[in-house]
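ok trying this again, last paste got cut off
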Amino acid sequence: MATKLSKRVAQSREGLDRNKQYALEEAVSLLKERANAKFDETIEVAMNLGVDPRHADQMVRGVVNLPNGTGRTVRVAVFAKGDKADEAKAAGADLVGAEDLVEAVQKGEINFDRCIATPDMMPLVGRLGKVLGPRGLMPNPKVGTVTADVAAAVKASKGGAVEFRVEKAGIVHAGVGKVSFDANAIAENVRAFADAVIKAKPAGAKGNYVKRVALTSTMGPGLKIDASTLSAS
């Protein structure tokens, strides 16, 4: 099995220049051509930023609606009561609840990928900080997951909303589609994500903000991207 994997990896990297910065469209085409897994691989973008997230004024986080969706099924949980709970269910939320949902999460039953809460539920949801926080699931008004408009938030999450948050090393990354997507659709998603990250540049960022950008697929090679090709022209 190891030999098979090595052969596959070697084939996917054959003829590539590890030091070259590829134009976005070229990189997308190469990843699509070389995708040879038996499943629909995820395309992921990683951006190395000139920030130190240990400082509050250099934290980068936000949410972006990818124009062509992510290609993955997102399970959404909503903490809401009454009419807001009904709105969430009608919008397609997978799990809706209040105290009962809090209890389930406290027991370790986290059967969702994204979590939304109405503002009045936050005192209750706040108890789950130690459980949801490390998983990046804690509802936050800055990324639109604490809101009274639960229907819009659920639809955005199901459609193609992607949250991002810079990691300790200054890297922010996200899945931006599948290799089965049309090449233009992938490029549009990458540009939308990059644009959102650039617009989220914090006040404390000094010098070169976007240092390096790379694009990869689940089983494919990582390609360096020429950052100047990320802006739509």
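PB: full thing came through this time. The first strand starts at residue 21 and ends at 22.
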